[in-house]
């Protein structure tokens, strides 16, 4: 285990991260083997990628109280106030073909919303391909990065930013409506307790994802059940075109299946698009 004590000032009411509690609770978990905590990092994903390339063991977890260059999908910046949220990445080394990587992202997202519900009672949903929402507001995001050789996975890094005890300030340069567990419940929750539940859930989902198709079927079913966009009208932007249609579902490769107004069936791969929900106005 590696750690570094936080040295800088925390936000109002924020508490130092209790690494000892985390590692003690995860003692028998895959993700308790090597936990690295840093007060500040550019990006937990970038830091862990460097470790992965040097042979870091599967299950390595990197946590930061603050990121100076946190990223989301498509190179977007991830803003998070110091000491109040969860910013972390985990390393996996599954013996899986590249085509199955999305099942790991699914397992990660489901572990996240299950942990949120267990610790706060909130019913979070997944906005394809990698955002976590409460109602119409984003509270978390996932960034999956990987290395593949001859069609087989060498390693996968799953990173998550989750708004926990932060009060999002609308005057910040945010591109979307944002919330947090604190905003939704009006009470602070333990970041360490939430992360423990999430990582234990991820270990279970990871074992399922590595199983046969019958075992993985449950992940696909739950993913669609928890999909914020299923059955909804959305706008898909690929950079080359803008398509509006109704979401039929997410397939087993993680692609978004859409039916346009003129009845065309379209399929979009997660790495290529941006999806915008179309919310009807209340009358």
Describe the structure.
26% of the residues lie in helices and 26% in strands. With 283 residues, it is of the alpha+beta class. It has two domains: 19-225, 2-Layer Sandwich (BirA Bifunctional Protein, domain 2); 233-277, SH3 type barrels, CATH 2.30.30. The strands form two sheets. A seven-stranded mixed sheet has the order 1-2-3-7-6-5-4, sandwiched between helices. The chain has a five-stranded antiparallel sheet with strand order 11-10-9-8-12. Residues 3-11 have low confidence and may be disordered.
Summarize the structure.
The chain contains 6 helices and 12 strands. With 283 residues, it is α+β, with helices and mostly antiparallel strands.
Mean pLDDT: 87
Would you list the SSEs in sequence order as H and E?
HEHEEHEEEEHHHEEEEE
CATH fold-level assignment of the largest domain: BirA Bifunctional Protein, domain 2
Q: What overall geometry do the principal axes of the alpha carbons give?
A: globular
Helical content band: 25-40%
What strand order characterises the main sheet? 1-2-3-7-6-5-4
How many separate domains make up the residues?
2
Total of helices: 6
By DSSP, the count of extended strands is 12
Q: For the record, what CATH class of the largest domain applies?
A: Alpha Beta
Q: Would you identify the regions where 5 or more consecutive residues have pLDDT less than 50?
A: 3-11
Q: Span between N and C termini? A: 55 Å
The CATH architecture name of the largest domain reads 2-Layer Sandwich
């Amino acid at each position: 285990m590696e750690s570094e004590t936080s040295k800088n000032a925390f936000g109002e009411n924020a508490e130092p991260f209790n690494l000892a509690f985390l590692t003690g609770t995860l003692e028998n978990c895959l993700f308790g083997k090597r936990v690295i905590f840093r007060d500040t990092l550019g990006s937990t994903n970038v830091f862990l990628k460097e470790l992965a390339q040097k042979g870091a063991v599967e299950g390595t977890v990197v946590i930061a109280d603050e990121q100076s260059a946190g990223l989301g999908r498509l190179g977007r910046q991830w803003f998070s106030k110091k000491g109040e949220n969860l910013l972390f990445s985990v390393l996996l080394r599954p013996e899986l073909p590249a085509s199955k990587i999305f099942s790991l992202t699914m397992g990660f997202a489901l572990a996240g919303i299950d942990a949120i519900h267990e610790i706060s009672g909130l019913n979070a949903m997944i906005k394809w391909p990698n955002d976590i929402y409460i109602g119409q507001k984003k509270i978390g995001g996932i960034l999956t990065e990987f290395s593949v050789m001859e069609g087989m996975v060498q390693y996968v890094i799953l990173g998550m930013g989750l708004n926990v005890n932060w009060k999002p300030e609308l005057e910040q340069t945010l591109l979307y409506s944002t919330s947090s567990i604190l905003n939704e419940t009006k009470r602070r929750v333990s970041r360490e307790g939430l992360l423990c539940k999430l990582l234990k859930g991820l270990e279970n989902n990871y074992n399922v994802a590595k199983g046969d198709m019958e075992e993985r079927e449950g992940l696909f079913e739950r993913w669609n059940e928890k999909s914020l966009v299923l059955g909804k009208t959305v706008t898909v932007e690929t950079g080359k075109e803008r398509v509006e249609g109704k979401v039929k579902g997410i397939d087993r490769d993680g692609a978004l299946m859409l039916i346009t107004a003129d009845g065309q069936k379209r399929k979009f791969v997660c790495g290529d698009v941006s999806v915008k929900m179309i919310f009807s106005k209340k009358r």
